[in-house]
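Q: Could you fold this chain for me?
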Amino acid sequence: MPSRPNENRLLTLMALGEIEAFNEVRFNDVGELLDDLHRRRMEDQYDLKLADRSMREMRRGGVKAIPIDMMIESIDRKIFMTNVLSI
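A: Sure. Below is the predicted structure, expressed as C-alpha cells.
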C-alpha cells in the first residue's frame, strides 16, 4: 500500500517554489532560504525604523502627518494629469 504524501512537506515545497519564482532566485537548501528570509525581515525592520524616526522628526518640527489615502489620491491625480497632458 503506498504511503500518503506528507502534507506539510508538500506545502513547504510549494511555498519554496513560489518564493523562488517571485524572486527569480534558486535556493540550494533550506539554510539559504532561511538566510534570505532573515535578511529580508531585517531590511523591513530597518525601513520601519527609518520611517518611525522620520515621523518623529516631522512631528517635532510641527509638521502634521498626511493620511495615506490623501497622499495616494494626490499621486493618482498627478499621474492622471500627466497622462492627459501628454495626449
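A (continued): Residues 29-86 form one domain.
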